[in-house]
Structures are given as structure tokens and as C-alpha cells.
Amino acid sequence: MLVGDITYLPVSGGGNMYLATVIDCYSRRLVGFSIACHMRVDLVIDALDQARRARGSLKGAIFHSDHGSVYTSKAFRSRCTMLGVTQSMGAVGTSADNALAESFNATLKREVLHNRKCFDSMLHARRDVFAWCVRYNQKRRHSWCDYLSPIEYENRTCGKLTLTA
């Protein structure tokens, strides 16, 4: 089971960057992400493709998201079908149905922005978020994972995972 979402990353001067994520529910590992200055469908397709590269295959996986236009788009639905992924969506207008992804986004913003309102520049947003995502998978301990990092948890419980089901 995978979950995904998009969050905005506020940048000084009033602009935003956008982060699309794909998280494995078993290990809480961020298996795919993409950062861009737009919120077009290729943002979420890039994140899903990165998850496929990380796992080798997503055939049989379920991908849960909200009803955002990028997730309901023909292009994203087609990519899911091509990869053998079944889409699942929560109720319209309730973030609780995608709580894992929403919690990840809140933690990222809290830990990366450190009480600042925005990133200094798009470059800083990309750099800081990328570094945090790498650290999250490799070093950040998670209560769900018996206080191991997501990658350590996967390695201890399953060895190398190739499928997220």
C-alpha cells in the first residue's frame, strides 16, 4: 500500500514550490518524490516513476491519495494502469483519509522550515527538502518502525523489498 500527496513549499517573494510524495505504508519509507515550481500532472507521475525505480516494480500495489485533479487526471490514471497499480481515493474534502501523507507533510515543514514562514529561494527549498527526504529514509527514527529509520526497518523485517503490497 502506497500513499501520496502534494504539499506546497512557500518561497520568499510569494511563490511556491510543490512536493509530490509516494510513501510505503509498511515501512513509512519515502519511495518516490518530485519537487517542481508547478503542480501539473507530471509532478505526481515523476514521483510515482521514482517509486517504481526504487522498488523495481509496483505491480499489485495500491496507491491511495486525495481527489486532487492531478490524481484524477487521465494521464495519472493511465500511468497507474501501465505500472499495474490500483488507485484508491479517500472521501472528498477530508484529509483524515490520507492521514499518513498529511502527517509526513506536516513533519517535513516543521523540521525543515524551523518556524520560518518560507524558504529563502527556490534553490534553498529544493536543496533543504531533498536533504531532509534522504535523511528521513536513512536516519530519522520512526515510532511505527520500532524507532528505526524506514530503510533500517525494511532491512530488518524483509530484506530488500521489491513490491509494496
UniProtKB/TrEMBL annotation:
Name the NCBIfam families for this protein.
transpos_IS3 (NF033516)
Biological processes per GO annotation: DNA integration
Q: Which Gene3D superfamilies match?
A: Ribonuclease H-like superfamily/Ribonuclease H
The Integrase catalytic domain, residue ranges: 1-158
Q: InterPro entries given for it?
A: Integrase_cat-core, RNaseH-like_sf, RNaseH_sf, Transpos_IS3, Transposase_IS3/IS150/IS904
Task: Please report the organism this UniProt entry assigns to the protein.
Answer: Corynebacterium timonense
Protein name (database record): Integrase core domain-containing protein
A Gene Ontology molecular function term of the record: nucleic acid binding
